[in-house]
From TrEMBL:
Chief subcellular location: membrane
Membrane-spanning intervals of the chain: 21-39, 451-471, 483-509, 521-539, 546-570, 611-629
Organism: Saccharopolyspora phatthalungensis
Subcellular location: Membrane
Pfam families in the record: ABC2_membrane_3
GO MF annotations, alphabetized: ABC-type transporter activity
Protein name: Putative membrane protein
Domain ABC-2 type transporter transmembrane: 25-164, 441-625
Keyword Transmembrane annotated: yes
Keywords: Membrane, Transmembrane, Transmembrane helix
Its membrane topology: Multi-pass membrane protein
InterPro entries: ABC2_TM, Phage_infect_YhgE_C, Phage_infect_YhgE_N, T7SS_ABC-Transporter, xxxLxxG_rpt
């Protein structure tokens, strides 16, 4: 109970116009800190649509397998349909400038070969296109982490565009495959027609073979006829042999005898006709001599008749003698020929036996064999014609088979590879058809390095807040004396400023050597920390000088506001509007921005602006402190007995 009474007495100590608000302010401190911090950071990921992001579409559409592929434009249209970020569709140069100067927190670049690589999905070795995301930690480290968090959604958007492209490519391939199959069906019909012709050719070939068979039968019959003819030849050769051996020699001998008799008879006739001619000539001479001796007889008709008759008789006897001489010569020639024939009978018989009859028989059977050969030739002709039809059908069958092979090969090209390695690669690419490659203009690398500017700013502000709990902001003796207000202000400012600079440098040394901060610009970092320590001390010095203990409370409230509105964690675009409104007027905003440049790298223009603004805070608040010191030269009862004092 005693403890409760003592506690109650402590609370009763806060009486008076201002003291009574002390417990209320203490009650509101957690509310201010917790509520404002939570309000500022309640749903930053839900406000990503306020974060400006540049999108560069450098993709070049391609035509593949009869389909026009423009995956980059498809991706852009899908981004436009979402409000993940505040999309700004610009060219590469503007995106680069905006990222460097902080107008964009990151850029998304669709490469020129995005569609071309997506078009390779049906190939044996599909390629995975990559979209490049470029960040700049100089604009904030957390926004990069937020981009990484949103990367999954971006990946889904890119994959959706890729899947649309795949679907078009796939359906295009299916359409081509269907057309190929239709052509294959026509080729198959040609193959069937060719097969029908082959069947007809085969039938014709069978008929031709039947003709050959018939010809062979005829040849067999011809051989039989040759056998029969051989028998007849043997019989006829016997008859001829008998005739030439028995009857022909007698007939030739008779002919020789008859010609000899005729020649002898004609010789006798020739002798007689010669004698008669001689006598007729003598009779004609005697008549003519009678006429010469008796000229008176020349005119006698009887004499004339006798003379004419004698002359005619002499002429007829001469003609008869000549005829008899020719007949004798002919008979003598016939006799010689008969004798010659008689002499040639022996060889003739031998020739007849050896040659004549077999040759005749052979010629006859050869004629029969020729008929059989003609039958074979006719059959072969039919077979050749059938072979031509068969050749034509085989040619069509071959053409149809070749077309079918070409179509099948073309269709096989459309089929994904079956090699286990290639299938694994294709499955990997199709499962995640695209990838996101992240780059960073000024990388912070680690979480602590990225958030160091924010925590450095907190540390320096807390130093200023606590410095004047231990140090007096104004030397009261100097205030009561005739020392100038500026001198008094500077005298109260310098100790904390120097300690603040030393404290900031100690903090930097511990973080750099202990944790490996390794800033891009060491001297700029230490200089900016020193300047910020001086500026923060100047502000706290003014608050403490002007408002006393309440100034410390205001410094705490200002710390809370700056924690939420300086942009040290999330982009200001994700904060509520009131925090965005006060952001440009807070000194911690410029320290955080400047340290990002000195630690991670970035645009020097930002750093120079931040230095100028912090230096301006120093000058302005030193001036305000001077004014406050000047006003404090007038002593009041409230100042002699302050209601609230720490």
């Amino acid at each position: 109970m005693k403890a409760i009474k003592l506690a109650w007495l402590e609370l009763r100590r806060f009486r008076g116009p201002l003291r009574r608000f002390v417990p209320l302010v203490l009650i509101l401190v957690p509310l201010l800190y917790g509520a404002m911090y939570l309000w500022s950071n309640w749903d930053p990921y839900g406000r990503l649509n306020r974060v400006p992001v540049a999108v560069v579409n450098s993709d070049r559409p391609v035509d593949s397998r009869g389909e026009h592929i423009n995956a980059g434009e498809q991706f852009v249209q899908q981004l436009k349909a979402t409000d993940m970020f505040e999309w700004n569709f610009v060219d590469a140069a503007e995106a680069r400038r905006g990222l460097v100067h902080g107008r964009y927190y990151l850029t998304i670049e669709v490469p020129p070969d995005f569609s071309a690589k997506l078009a390779t999905t049906a190939d044996h070795k599909p390629q995975r296109p990559a979209v490049r995301i470029v960040k700049n930690d100089a604009n904030g480290f957390i926004v990069g982490i937020m981009a990484d968090t949103a990367q999954t959604e971006l990946q889904n958007q890119i994959n959706a565009a890729a899947h649309v492209t795949y679907a078009r490519s796939l359906y295009g391939d299916l359409g081509q495959a269907r057309e190929k199959l239709r052509l294959s069906s026509e080729a198959t019909k040609q193959l069937v027609q060719g097969s029908d012709l082959s069947k007809q050719g085969t039938d014709a070939l069978a008929k031709g073979l039947n003709g050959v068979r018939d010809g062979t039968g005829q040849l067999s019959r011809g051989v039989q006829d040759i056998s029969d003819a051989t028998a007849q030849l043997d019989q006829r050769l016997s008859t001829i042999s008998n005739f030439t051996a028995e009857r022909l020699p007698g007939a030739v001998n008779a002919l020789v005898n008859a010609s000899n008799v005729a020649a002898n008879s004609l010789n006798t006739i020739k002798t007689t006709t010669g004698f008669l001619g001689q006598r007729a000539g003598e009779g004609r001479g005697a008549v003519e001599e009678l006429g010469q001796k008796h000229p008176e007889l020349a005119q006698d008709p009887v004499y004339q008749r006798a003379l004419n008759n004698a002359r005619k008789l002499a002429d007829a006897a001469g003609t008869a003698d000549k005829d008899a001489h020719r007949a004798l010569t002919t008979a003598q020639d016939a006799n010689r020929q008969a004798l010659s024939l008689q002499d040639s009978m022996g060889p003739l018989q031998n020739q007849v036996r050896a040659i004549t009859a077999p040759v005749d028989t052979l010629r006859s059977r050869a004629a029969e064999m020729s008929g059989g050969a003609n039958g074979i030739t006719s059959g072969l002709n039919t077979l050749a014609a059938s072979s031509g039809v068969l050749h034509t059908g085989a040619g069509q069958l071959n053409d149809g088979a070749k077309n079918l092979q070409g179509l099948v090969d073309g269709t096989l090209e459309k089929i994904p590879p079956t090699n286990p390695t290639e299938v694994s690669h294709a499955a990997d690419v199709l499962g995640s058809p695209t990838e996101i490659r992240t780059d960073n203009l000024n990388p912070a690398h680690v979480y602590g390095r990225g958030l160091a500017p924010f925590f450095f700013a907190i540390a320096l502000w807390v130093f200023g807040l606590f410095a004047y709990l231990l140090l007096k902001p104004v030397n009261l003796r100097a205030l009561a004396d005739r020392v100038g207000a500026l001198t008094i202000a500077v005298a109260g400012f310098l100790p904390a400023a120097v300690l603040g600079v030393l404290g900031g440098l100690a903090l930097y040394a511990a973080v750099d050597f202990g944790l490996g901060l390794d800033p891009e610009h060491v001297w700029w970092t230490t200089g900016l920390l020193s300047l910020a320590a001086v500026a923060f001390v100047a502000i706290d010095h003014f608050l403490r000088t002007a408002f006393g203990a309440i100034g410390g409370l205001l410094s705490l409230v200002l710390l809370i506001v700056q924690l939420t509105a300086c942009g040290g964690l999330y982009p200001m675009e994700t904060a509520p509007v009131p925090f965005q409104a006060v952001h440009p007027f807070l000194p911690m905003s410029y320290l955080v921005d400047g340290l990002r440049v000195t630690i991670s790298g970035g645009v020097t223009e930002h750093l120079l602006r931040d230095v100028a603004v912090l230096a301006g805070f120093v000058v302005v608040f030193l001036a305000l402190t001077t004014v406050a010191v000047q006003r404090q030269r007038s002593w009041t009862l409230g100042r002699l007995h302050p209601q609230i004092e720490f």
